[in-house]
Amino acid sequence: MPIEVRNVAFSYNHNPSKRDADIGLKENAVLKDMTFTCRDNRVTGIVGPNGCGKTTILKVIAGFYKAQSGTISYDGKNTGNMHAAELARLRAVVEQTVYTPFAFPVYDYVMLGRTPYHGNFSADTEEDNEIVLNAMKDTNVLQFKDRKINELSGGELQRVMIARSLAQEPKYLMLDEPTSHLDIRQQLEVMKLLRTISSDTTVMCIIHEINQAAAYCDDVVMTAGGYVVGEGKAEDILNYDNLNEVFGVLSIQTNQPESGKKQFLFSLQPDTHTERIKHVHVISGEGRGGRILLTLKHAGFRVTAGILSRNDGDYLVCRSAGIETVSVPSFSMYSDEAIMEQKKLCDEADAVVLVATDVGSCNLGNLETAYSYLNSGKVVCFVDHNLKEYKYDNTADKRATRIYDEMLKGAKAFSSADELLTELMN
After folding, report:
1. How many CA atoms within 13 Å lie on the side-chain side of 38?
2. How far apart are CA 9 and CA 57, in angstroms?
């Protein structure tokens, strides 16, 4: 039973009496043209920057606001033709804050979820009691049933609010930032609970934490400026390009060890560099060049990299960031073709950056390539986070150490990505 949103537009200041209502709507619209689907028995996360209309679209879907154009349908039925009581039996909403003018016992508060099934002044039934107790068990709040709702912690209250919504027996559960103001453990517990609930109920939630969306949402709707930028499986939508376009941030993708789900590290984009240097080729490895690669990428440089082994952390960073990379199979010697491709990129680059790594026979060629440009007139930079404290050298006659010594003497040496960026931008 999917929720289908089709061409929805909404404005808080819409005046239908204007001569050209469509123009008036477009000028003031919070939602300009929203189209997406929340699929059955899945967790769909709505993500986007502040002020992009996430809460508004949730309230339109829930029927709290009426769209000025477009349609919302539950399982193919237009919600615009539904009465409020019918909507209340189909969907439940957990808003960001709960207003409790009275110190309700938790049990009584959860029982409010049965209101759509009661007539005026009708008493709670045994069936109501059973449904409420089951909802409290499912959300692990049964032990709080006799406590006052204003005595609960943030995480406890959030679970109680979800229990009340489950007591409505909804087909659709909608939540507005369910993990806001919670500590890390409480956030994870709530998201895990939503995953469990989704086996029987279609869940849609607004979420700010991208890593939570990546770990717990089946699908993601990414929004910006009143439009849908992308919708689909979380692993497809949450990627370097979309996060850059919508949030304007630098991201490094990693994966959770157990689940394999994507996780991201974020940073702000540095200021744009000058036009003197446009293309930088980075020679790194062992994951030691990740920050350098991404810092240069988001500073606006054309960045290329390699040679990198395909099991190297830096290779994974390059793939995530869309950086052109010369690569070879894991644990293999560099092929002549790869070395030629590397030198071609170095020839084209305005600067070559060598990052200090452990060196053996497989990757010595990287050092030799960087060293060959030392007196070529090209800008050559050497980055070692512990200057003069070289990494493990397993090369014949300590060739790697001798190259590193020469790089310290002849190249521009730095101990951090920030120092390197400052130099390249000047």
Report:
1. 30
2. 9
DSSP letter, residue 245: H
**Is 188 in a helix, a strand, or coil?**
helix
Burial (CB count within 10 angstroms: exposed 0-12, middle 13-18, buried 19+), residue 99: exposed
For residues 358 and 394, give the distance between their C-alpha atoms in angstroms, rounded to a whole number: 8
Contact 328, 340 (CB under 8 A): no
Nearest to 103 by CA among 168, 159, 157: 157
Inter-residue contact 305 to 284 (CB < 8 Å): yes
> DSSP alpha helices (H): ranges in 63-217?
84-90, 106-111, 126-138, 154-167, 184-197, 210-216
Give the pLDDT confidence of 205-239 residue by residue, as tens digits. 999 999 999 999 999 999 999 999 999 999 999 98
* Residues whose CB is less than 8 angstroms from the CB of residue 157 and which lie 6 or more positions away in sequence, other chains included: 98, 149
Residues 6+ apart with CB under 8 A from 171: 1, 74, 75, 90, 91, 201, 202
Contact residues for 257 (Cβ-Cβ < 8 A; gap 6+):
none
User: Can you read off the two tokens belonging to residue 364?
Assistant: 């010595």
* DSSP one-letter code for 143: G
What residues contact residue 119 under an 8 Å CB cut-off, 6+ apart?
none
Helix (H) / strand (E) containing 36: strand 31-38
pTM, 2 dp: 0.71
Enumerate helices (H) and strands (E) in the chain, giving the number of each. Answer: 16, 18
pLDDT single digits (tens) 230-253:
999 999 999 888 998 899 887 877
What CA–CA distance (Å, rounded) separates 390 from 2? 59
Cis peptide before 307 (omega within 30 of 0): yes
Instruction: Tell me how far apart the alpha carbons of residues 353 and 370 are, in angstroms, rounded to a whole number.
Output: 8
Residue listed under structure tokens 């070692």: 384
- For the chain, what is the radius of gyration of the CA atoms? 28
Q: Can you give the pLDDT at residue 71?
A: 95
Task: Specify whether the CB–CB gap between 180 and 96 falls below 8 A.
Answer: yes
Element (H, E) at 401: helix 399-410
Rounded Cα distance between 363 and 334, Å, is 7
CA end-to-end distance (rounded Å), the chain: 58
Neighbours of 166 (CB within 10 A): 24
Distance of CA 4 to the CA centre of its chain: 23
In angstroms, what CA-CA distances link 272 with 18, 278, 279, 334? 44, 11, 13, 35
